[in-house]
Specification:
Distance between the termini: 77 Å
Structural class: alpha+beta
CATH architecture of one domain: 2-Layer Sandwich
Strand content: 15-25%
Radius of gyration: 50 Å
Order of helices and strands: HHEEEEEEEHHHEHEEHEEHEE
Number of strands: 14
CATH superfamily of one domain: Histidine kinase-like ATPase, C-terminal domain
Number of helices: 8
Length: 478
C-alpha cells in the first residue's frame, strides 16, 4: 500500500478574499474617524489657502499703495517751462534713489520713449521695456523681483510716462515663510486632531459598546432581562425601548412555544395511552376474534383523533410560516355560509341547538372557498359545543365600507373577561369545559390564521353566562 500524506489545501495567492479596506469600512469607528479627518483636512486646506492668498493680497496692496504715493510725489517734481522739461532732481539725489540696486527705482520718459531722467539706483538698467500703464511684477537691475507702477500723466499739455518700482524680495520671503509655517503647522494640527478624533470616537461609541454588552448577556435562558432605557444616552433611548419591546414579544413567543409543546404533548398523550393500554390488554392472553375487533376499533378511534390533531398542528405551522397555499378566486360569501350551515346542521340537531340565518346579503369577495368554509365551521362548532341545552346560534352578514362582516352570536356559557384574550391561543379551552367537551383547542387559532391570510380579522365579544359574538371581517373585492 502507498501511504498518501494529506496536507491542508493552501489558498492560491490569486484567490479572491475579503479586502482589508472593505472590512475596515464596515466599522463605524473607522468610517467616523475617516469622516472627521477628511472634513478637518479639507477645512484646514481651504483655510490655509485663504490665509495665504489673503496675506499675499495685503502685502501686495501695501506695496502698491506705496508705489502710488511715491508716484504722486515724483509727478509733482516735473515742470514744463517755455517748452523745456524741468525735474527737481535735487529732491531725489539723496536717499534710497541714489544707492545702486537699493530696490527703490524711478524713471521718466516722454510719450515718444525718449528718456528724460531716472534714479541713480538703476545704474545702466532701464524700466521702459514695458509700455503698458498699470502695475506689473518684473525683474530689477540686480535680478531681484520688483513691483512696477507705470502711469501716464500730463503737465502743460505735455504727456509723460513715469515708472516707479519697489523691490519685493522681503515681501516674497515673508510669503514663503508663511507658506512654510502653514506646511508645518497645519499637518501637525491635523495629526493632533486625528489623535483627538480617535479619543472622541472612542468616547462617543463607548456607550454603544456597553449597550451591546448588555444585549449580549441576554440569552434564551435569560429572556426576562432588559436594557435599562433610563441609564443610556439620549441617542440610545429609542433603540433601547425598541429592543425591550422586541424582547417582550420574543419572550411571549418563546413562552407560547413552550406552552404549545406542553399542550401538544398533553393532547397526544391521551390517544397514545389509549393505544398502548388497549394493545397491552389484548396481548395478555388469547382472546376471541370479537374482542380483538373491539380493540382494533378503539385503536382506530384513538389513531384518527391523533391524526386529526397532527393534521391541525401542521396546518397551524404552515399558516405561521405562510406556506399554506390559498386559491385566489371570486366567491360568493352567501354560498360559503349556506354550505357551512348545511354541514354543521347535524351537530346542531344532535345538541338540540337552533341555528338561525338572517340578513344574509349577496356579497362577492376574493379568496379560497374551502378555507373560508373551514373558518366558519370552526367558529360555529365552538358556538354549538359551548352552548346551553335548547340554545340558539344566529348568523348574519352585512356590508360596511370595504368590509364584509359576518357575525355569529350564541346563547352559550360565555367567556370570562380575564379569558377573553386567550380564546385564540392554541389548545386553550375554558376550564368549565376541559374534560367534558371534546376538542383540541385548535379550531379558533386556525380560523384566525385563515382570516388573517385573507387580509381580514376576527373580533370577539362576550358576556360571561349570557353568550358570545364572533365578528369576522373580510375585505371586499376591489
Amino acid at each position: 500500500m502507498i501511504a498518501i500524506n494529506r496536507r491542508p489545501l493552501k489558498t492560491h495567492p490569486l484567490t479572491p478574499g475579503p479586502w482589508p479596506l472593505t472590512t475596515m469600512l464596515r466599522s463605524i469607528k473607522t468610517r467616523l474617524f475617516i469622516w472627521l479627518i477628511t472634513s478637518f483636512t479639507v477645512i484646514m486646506a481651504v483655510l490655509g489657502i485663504f490665509l495665504y492668498n489673503r496675506l499675499d493680497v495685503i502685502v501686495m496692496d501695501s506695496v502698491d499703495h506705496l508705489l502710488s504715493d511715491k508716484s504722486e510725489i515724483l509727478k509733482g517734481l516735473v515742470h514744463v517751462e517755455k517748452g523745456e522739461v524741468e525735474f527737481e532732481i535735487s529732491e531725489v539725489t539723496a536717499g534710497d534713489y541714489s544707492i545702486k540696486n537699493s530696490g527703490h527705482y524711478f524713471e521718466l520718459i516722454d510719450v515718444t520713449g525718449v528718456p528724460l531722467v531716472k534714479s541713480k539706483s538703476l545704474g545702466n538698467f532701464t524700466l521702459t521695456a514695458i509700455r503698458v500703464a498699470g502695475i506689473h511684477t518684473t525683474t530689477g537691475p540686480a535680478g531681484e523681483p520688483i513691483r512696477l507702477l507705470i502711469e501716464d500723466f500730463s503737465v502743460n499739455n505735455e504727456r509723460f510716462l513715469i515708472y516707479v518700482a519697489e523691490g519685493i524680495t522681503a515681501d516674497i520671503n515673508l510669503l514663503r515663510s508663511f507658506k512654510l509655517f502653514l506646511s508645518i503647522v497645519f499637518p501637525l494640527t491635523i495629526l493632533i486632531s486625528g489623535l483627538g478624533s480617535i479619543v472622541i470616537v472612542w468616547l462617543s461609541l463607548r456607550p454603544l459598546a456597553s449597550f451591546s454588552s448588555q444585549i449580549g448577556r441576554i440569552t434564551e435562558k435569560r429572556l426576562h432581562e432588559r436594557v435599562d432605557a433610563n441609564d443610556v444616552d439620549a441617542e440610545l433611548k429609542a433603540l433601547a425601548s425598541s429592543f425591550n419591546e422586541t424582547m417582550d414579544r420574543l419572550e411571549k413567543a418563546f413562552q407560547a412555544q413552550r406552552d404549545f409543546l406542553s399542550d401538544a404533548s398533553h393532547e397526544l398523550r391521551t390517544p397514545t395511552s389509549v393505544i398502548k393500554s388497549t394493545v397491552d390488554v389484548a396481548l395478555r392472553r388469547e382472546r376471541p376474534v370479537e374482542e380483538y375487533r373491539e380493540a382494533l376499533e378503539t385503536i382506530k378511534t384513538a389513531t384518527e383523533r391523533m391524526g386529526g390533531l397532527i393534521d391541525r398542528l401542521l396546518r397551524l405551522s404552515r399558516l405561521d410560516a405562510e406556506q399554506l397555499k390559498f386559491k385566489n378566486e371570486n366567491i360568493s360569501l352567501k354560498d360559503v355560509l349556506e354550505i357551512t350551515l348545511k354541514t354543521i346542521s347535524p351537530l346542531a340537531q344532535e345538541r338540540e341547538i337552533r341555528v338561525n340565518a338572517e340578513k344574509i346579503e349577496e356579497i362577492v369577495l376574493t379568496g379560497d372557498k374551502d378555507q373560508l368554509i373551514e373558518l366558519f365551521l370552526s367558529i360555529l362548532d365552538n358556538s354549538i359545543k359551548y352552548n346551553r341545552p335548547n340554545g340558539s346560534v344566529t348568523v348574519s352578514m352585512t356590508r360596511s365600507g370595504e368590509w364584509a362582516i359576518t357575525r355569529i352570536m350564541d346563547t352559550g356559557i360565555g367567556i370570562a373577561p380575564e379569558a377573553l384574550d386567550k380564546v385564540f391561543a392554541r389548545f386553550y379551552r375554558a376550564d368549565l369545559s376541559r374534560g367534558e367537551i371534546a376538542g383540541t383547542g385548535l379550531g379558533l387559532p386556525i380560523a384566525k390564521g385563515i382570516a388573517e391570510s385573507h387580509g381580514g380579522r376576527i373580533e370577539v365579544e362576550s358576556e360571561f353566562g349570557k353568550g358570545t359574538t364572533f365578528s369576522v371581517y373580510l375585505p371586499l373585492s376591489k
